[in-house]
Amino acid sequence: MISANDLSRSELAALLAFHAEAGVEWLLEDEPVDRLAEFEAMKAKRADARAAPQVRQPDPSGAPSGQPQPAASGKFREALPAAPASVQPTVAIPDEQAIGEARFAAESARSLAELRTAMEAFTGCNLKNSARNLVFADGNAASGIMIVGPMPYAEDDRDGQPFAGRHGDMLERMLSGIGLSRSDVLLTNVVPWRPPGNRVPSGREADICRPFIERQIALAEPRQLLLLGNFTARFFFGTNETIHQTRGQWRELSAGGHLVPALATLHPQDLITAPVNKRFAWQDLLTFKARITG
What we know:
Blueprint (H helix, E strand, L loop, with lengths): L8 H13 L13 H17 L22 H6 L15 H14 L3 H10 L5 H4 L7 E2 L5 E5 L4 H6 L5 H12 L9 E4 L13 H18 L3 E5 L1 H8 L5 H4 L3 E6 L2 E8 L2 H6 L4 H15 L2
Parallel strand pairs: 2-3, 2-4, 4-6
Antiparallel strand pairs: 1-3, 5-6
């Protein structure tokens, strides 16, 4: 095995970039570490500290306990350790309050640029704490075609752009088959911050982000929506059906008061992991093309 010490700076940078693109987020130690044992030892140490008797320290002034103490000299005061700074606890915003704040921020925006600014300032979604970047809509808002995915993945989060990396490459191939490119459409996601480990967003996280994606649709005013993936279809259609049950069917939905026909199909990740899905996606794309070409 090649040691990291044998690699040049440029080779190390290329290796780290490769791991980041592959989705690696944690590096392993050379020797295994039992984190559970460390945690138990830490708990035992804290318990011992709490159980230890408190011993009154002798007063350096020599005055009896309980009597007023003379003011310490300036020299003595300087020798005393500084009092620890008070730590302010992190205050969790209740879900309902976070949804209300998101709705207010979204409705206050009068353009996509204002909406992006509002989302950058929003702190009510816990996903923002672990994500690198806000992944906002990208592309041509005047095209009348909006493509919505579920959430940013690792490459999207790194670049701050929807459908980056291999998912973007696959989407480009999907669009080119019907005469489109990513510059011809507006790309976005239901959730604008990447969930840790690319997990599916929770129901509450989706509820908090709903005002933002609905406001994006209302401001962009697309004539057609293409929804990618199981999560996205369920989010907008409000059903528990799988993507294979909803794909290829035009449905009308309302987002922020804007009525728009929407068609669901498979996400590029579905085509990467199971190439057999390409034939289903191709059928859906032909259906989408027939609608946008009149």
